[in-house]
Amino acid sequence: MGPLDVWDLSPLLSLWMNRFYIYMGCALGLTLCICVQIIKKQVTRSQEKRVPGAPDSSLSPQKKQTHVSGVKIFYGSQTGTAKGFAVVLAKAVTSLDLPVAIINLKEYDPDDSLIGEITSKTVCAFLVATYTDGCPTESAEWFCKWLEESANDFRFGKTYLKGLRYAVFGLGDSAYRSHFNKVSTNVDKWLWMLGAQRVLTRGEGDCNAVQSKHGSIEADFTAWKTKFISRLQALQRGEKKACGGNCKRGKCESAQHGPGEARPHPQGELHPGDAEEEEPCESSSEDELGTQDYQSLTSVVDVEDLGNIMNPVKREKREKSHQDGKAAMQRNPEKTEDGEGRAMITPALREALTKQGYQLIGSHSGVKLCRWTKVFIGFIQILFLFSATYLFLSIYFVCAHMCGGQSTAYRIWFSLWALGTKLSFSVTAATWMAPVWFSAVLLWYTSHAVRGSR
Ligand SMILES: Cc1cc2nc3c(=O)[nH]c(=O)nc-3n(C[C@H](O)[C@H](O)[C@H](O)COP(=O)(O)O)c2cc1C
């Protein structure tokens, strides 16, 4: 009696006989699964672009006139003040019958989502605190890093965030003099540099009650909040400019202002107290630079002029990296004095990137694998595990056979080995379905390429 006689393999045999139908079914199932996934993703993405609960603009002609679909309040807080302000602001916004979302900057990926705020007609409010040396809170670190890099990266261009409406309120302490409210100043500046539209002049909250414009940081915030709400109402009515649209080169020429009043500089160089002097003024880099300057910035550049344009940029970058180097030297003298290159990934950035799901490679690069690639790698790993097991089984079987072993263990191993052989044949046969697999993979890849190309 042969070892195979012990086992009833008829169900497996019938499976083998009908293998082509099985392959066909599997391939069809997989293709359908991928299609459903793609459709689901598209639907979710289009829903994400709308603020939750926002009216569907396609429903009626009246709703098509929606100027503000909702408000997103982003906060970067360490001890909770900014978060508390976000809740208060959200309550005030709700009274305007507008959907509102409060978002911790820690949980927000600007790379994926910020551009979506433009199409969704959202107004974004940023409430950000400043900490030691003018640094952002840990939760806002990645957001600020991304914003700074994008604003200074010529590939993003001056219109990357064109149409994004935003307002910034900063939390700080004027006792920190030169670093007072630095984060809010920078966030305001970087958003502006990327072409976003400032709907209200930046507000500054000062913990230093003596210096605070309204007597306390809470009062500073309340004053800014009142302006923000009335600006929102105006935006809801479809009013584009609060100051009659005469803003040019950072100076508002409307009748409300006398000449010589302090204005927000495009670079955001406001001095403590300046911000609150402003009337709400909608502006973007395009507005403030003036059409001609703006066109010269964005239009096609003669290759010969490119050097002239890039030289100051390069010089600025060199100076910046020189300053950064100096700062690093102060922070970590042993390292730089040794002549060792400054690490491009700081510990904080490393942590932020790891949290974002990046795998860091070496000192200055990282990758983020998409879910499907991870699934694919997992699949390959399982396949490898099976192959290795099968190989060991084969070795064992050959050895046992050579030793003439006919024990129960031998018979079990033999059956497993025989099953493995059948399976491996099945896998080979499955490749006959290559065209179907290929189209499924192509479908998957195209959907990813579309997602990636924005
Ligand atoms: C250790 C420490 C450092 C700070 N550094 C600055 C600073 O450099 N510039 C500034 O404007 N405010 C600074 N502040 C003030 C905070 O920004 C202010 O307290 C703010 O309200 C904190 O907001 P939060 O509670 O949302 O974190 C600092 C506060 C602390 C406790």
UniProtKB/TrEMBL annotation:
Coiled coil segments of this chain: none
Recorded GO MF terms: 4 iron, 4 sulfur cluster binding; FMN binding
SUPFAM superfamilies assigned to the protein according to its UniProt record, in alphabetical order: Flavoproteins
Annotated stretches, region: Disordered: 242-290, 308-339
Ranges of residues in domain Flavodoxin-like: 71-229
InterPro entries: Aldolase_TIM, Flavdoxin-like, Flavodoxin/NO_synth, Flavoprotein-like_sf, tRNA_wybutosine-synthase
Transmembrane segments: 20-39, 375-398, 423-445
UniProt feature, compositional bias: Basic and acidic residues: 250-274, 313-325
Keywords: Membrane, Transmembrane, Transmembrane helix
GO biological process: tRNA processing
Statement: the UniProt record of this protein carries the keyword Transmembrane helix: yes
Signal peptide limits: none
Pfam families for this protein: Flavodoxin_1
Residue stretches of biased makeup (Acidic residues): 275-290
Protein name: tRNA-yW synthesizing protein 1 homolog (S. cerevisiae)
Gene name as annotated: Tyw1
